[in-house]
## 1
Amino acid sequence: MTKMKAVAKIKPSPGAEIVEMDIPTPGLNEVLVKVLATSICGTDLHIFEWNEWARRRIKKLPQVMGHELCGEIVELGENVTHLKKGDIVSAETHIACGHCFLCHTGQAHICINGSIFGVDVNGVFAEYTVVPASNIWVLDKRIPKDFASVMEPLGNAVHTVLAGEIAGTTVLITGCGPIGIMSTAVSKICGATKIIATEINEYRINLAKKVGADLVLNPRKDNIAQRVREETQGLGVDVVLEMSGNPSAIQEGLESLRPGGRFSILGLLDKPLETDWNKNIIFKYVTVQGINGRLIFSTWHKTSRFLSSGRLDLDPIITHRFRLEEFEKGMELMKSGNCGKVLLYP
Ligand code: ZN
């Protein structure tokens, strides 16, 4: 067998197609992975819908979509000696150059020559995919296989939550998409003492409560900053984890943060945003922190330990499973917001 099925973005317009293409051949330092499961990220939905961000960001079509991977190594490049056929793996999706200033100083996740699966190079919505051996994460046998593809976005949540003090803090999580939901669960096991989330979708409000939010506020009904102050003895929360990319959620988050607090941002905005810097940031003495990817590989080690110890359970967070051919159903569901993580099986 030399051909495989894949979900590819063919044209610079909304949608994607199932295509038949050659199974890729691994290079000297790469491995061929048989995809067992993959999950849909908000990024994939942006590319599928071909929104403003995707139009500016995607340079090359056609391209296989997807980046969140669970698979089995079926072929090794000639130079690869530390992995073996049959290994069940996930993968870091940021491919670093290994020789720039950032790679040299322990910040390979923001490598200036970096590329990303399914964004810059062919992705993993396919029966097979080629991955640089240095990006492979071998799954701990105690972790259910299904969880492997979700380790990458879970790593985003772990990275954001642990990017500052969390034990004993009060936390506001703005936006309960899958990473907001996972951040709620991670904040809980890391010892946050009060977790307030904001969300408008009923399904996700319930999911946030299920995984550990003490209170979920609805920006369409509640005055967020006022309610947060009521819940924190008038002070505001110590930490805001911004997961929505929504301008009003960001404004509400800044107003809900106590002076001297941490504002960690993972949610991507569609366009530039104005805020009152003097009032919300400078005089308030807050730390505003952009979060990108995962620390390679210290975030992966922590994420793996959270899962293998049984402290963190992804079962309630993985809500839907489809065959790869049914990817459009998954995209629709992600768009509706009536889901947690959606998995696709080739
Ligand atoms: Zn680099």
Note: The chain has two domains: 3-150+314-345, 158-290.
## 2
Amino acid sequence: MTINRPPMGWNTWNTFGPEINEQLVRETVDFIVSSGLTKAGYEYIIIDDGWSEMERDAEGRLVADHKKFPSGMKALGDYIHSKGLKFGMYSCCGTMTCGGYPGSYDHEFIDAETFASWGVDYLKYDFCYHTGTLAGKYFYRRIGAALANCGRDIVLAACSWGMEETQEWIKTTGSHTWRSTHDIQNSWASIKSITEQQIKMLPYGAHGCFNDMDMLIVGMGGNSFIDGFFETNGCTLHDHKTHFSIWSLFGSPLIIGCDIRNMPAEATDILTNKDVIAINQDPALCQPYRIALDRCPDDILVYARLLEGGDFAIGCFNMSEGDYRFIFGLDELGITATSGKTIVAKELWSGKDQPLRCDSFDLTIEPHGTRLFRCKVVDKK
Ligand code: GLA
């Protein structure tokens, strides 16, 4: 099977870690529907690590934790499906998951069958506790083969953190998405570091095997699982806007990681911005590319991406701690002075048109700030 857009959904891990249960998941499902997130495109409800019993059953099958999920995973999957959503689960290529629960090593086919029998649509597959004598690619080929033979279409979301040059072999495994970095933390430093690590990964993304930059931290305050449940400042909404813009422009899966039952209205506004999501989901699946490189320091990023129908997306990201003046021309998009063309640029967070000066952008952006444009190519008057 193939998928033709980066998956969008919600995952339990960032906020709750292994402290999950069926009530939390059901409530979240209800909120996803009532808050407009479903309409915006979020569809996968993904249960991450910590869902199973510590032992397999007598037939060697994985078993859901009876206390956390007393109705069982089939019933939970049915509930998720009854709301028009899709069901995601988690396992790991090693003998144990990262949290120490049973992993799928040497049980790939039986686990794929179990997930299929529960109605699973998406499997996140982690990289902990595998034998060092076998290269990572073989573990993903095993589960890829098992899922392809399980009788159900299941998205394979590889999670090998970019290790062993994941980008070089991941498309041989049948995976549909692949994590390119270690885990996101609830901080601006983490957003910045993951973004910088993408620069060499971008050529490997899109087209049916999407580069997963990890779950979103939009809507998370302090005090979540990935903060170690400590009180922290987390990020500002301003940071979250930049984070969501980068993940969108770069074509990452958009997997929400906050407690959406309690997220601030501003976070919902960010996560449901239709114009920004349209760039993430753009059917042309073109690779973004860096422009204005010769004029910018490392922490000043300008990226462009050609969209279906000939529009362009342009993102200007000030990852630094001071104001920065961005000046760049259209020639780097292929719109040269002799083409007779120019662009009309709409900034997607403000909804305003950005005036150009001599076919160039000239804007000053505050620290951690973003301007994300959708540009139409028009005749020059
Ligand atoms: C790894 C993954 C995380 C999460 C945890 C669960 O660290 O990268 O996204 O799934 O395992 O233990």
Note: The chain is about 25% helix and 20% strand.
